[in-house]
Design goal:
Elements: E1 5-13, E2 19-27, E3 33-39, E4 44-50, H1 53-67, E5 72-77
Antiparallel strand pairs: 1-2, 1-5, 2-3, 3-4
């Protein structure tokens, strides 16, 4: 996605403090959304594009739920980003 802007990122660490998962949510100039999910220990990465924020939010929330089985999340958002409906 060209001209993408990072609006939310999360890092999930296990009980030993080891990074288990990372997520990054980007928005583009034309309203498209992109989600990257990575597992650093395995090298796996998923990158998916979405047409609406609502669908992208559903996907990132699913990633957060998946990560909770490994540990806890630390989530940061861009100062000017407030998810729709929150």
């Amino acid at each position: 996605m060209l001209l993408r802007r990072l609006v939310e990122m999360g890092e999930c660490t296990d009980a030993q403090g080891i990074l288990a998962l990372t997520v990054r949510l980007y928005t583009g100039a034309v309203g498209a959304w992109e989600l990257e999910v990575r597992e650093p220990h395995s090298g796996r990465e998923i990158c998916q594009r979405y047409e609406t924020e609502a669908i992208a939010r559903g996907a990132i929330e699913a990633a957060y739920e998946h990560g909770r089985q490994f540990g806890t999340w630390r989530v940061q958002r861009a100062r000017d980003y407030k998810p729709t409906g929150q």
